[in-house]
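DM from R.C. (forwarded with permission)

"hey, sorry to bug you on a friday — could you get me a structure for this? deadline for the figure draft is monday and I only need the backbone to look sensible"
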Amino acid sequence: MTYASRLVLTALALIVGLAASEAKAQETGTPQELDERVQQFLDENRSQWHDANVPMADGQLLHDLVLENGYTAALEIGTSTGHSAIWIAWALSKTGGRLTTIEIDEGRYRQALENFEAAGLSDYIDARLADAHELVLKLEGPFDFVFLDADKDWYAKYFDAVFPKLEVGGCFTAHNVSGRLMRGIDEFLDRLETTEDLETEIVQASRSGMSVSYKR
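My reply, with the result:
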């Protein structure tokens, strides 16, 4: 299939997704009501995101990447208590998409479920309590957006497992890549640099650094 054909299919999928989003809105309220609910939840909990959650600037970046590209099939590896997932799912509520997110710690997973419900985004999130080392290999995909924020020494392995399931035009993002200070980040960044048909930039929305890679 040519790249142009994939773009046409992506556009058609977005149209279908928007129709699905309108159907879901009948259950969760109007898009404006959902926006207000999510924004209120984020405002009220602005200082509560601990346990390895992303800062607000990075959450906003994830939201914008999904929305601007019309992504609908998202995967997150490393939920924590759900801050990044809320930003991603908020964008997916506008594109008609859905997020699959994986967390291994049961306490964080349960808290994330409560946060998704409070934000009004549960219908857009498939939250899995699982070991991502095992589950990522089993997921069929395809995905058009991936956010990686889990154990750094496995970053390269996660990438190897997911990249074949990433659609052309899709985006693979990863957190905490600045400075190559953490074990495993060097190997991961080298993998990004040497993978064909991949364009990568490091975005400094926060001091943590986010790699944003597009599959061409």
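R.C.: lifesaver. Residues 3-215 form a domain with the Rossmann fold fold (CATH 3.40.50.150).
me: no worries. Strands lie at 73-77, 98-103, 125-129, 143-148, 166-175, 198-203, 210-215.
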